[in-house]
Amino acid sequence: MADYDRSTGAPWSAADLEQLRILAAEGTAPSVIAVQLDRSEEAIAHRAAQDGISLPPASLNPYDPDTLDR
Questions:
Q1: In the predicted model, what is the mean pLDDT of residues 11-40?
Q2: d(CA 24, CA 63)
């Protein structure tokens, strides 16, 4: 049996949704949320849009050296 891969459209659990809400409210970049939830950035953006969750712009990625001085 193949290893389970979260990026294949697995349903979102209540805990996943709560973590998405918390991380978005903290201003965490979508790319970082994707890593923490083990999902694609597209999945994060799609689910956030479905649930009316505002995500920070991708250009404000806290790990991007070009945005550290802002």
A1: 94
A2: 16
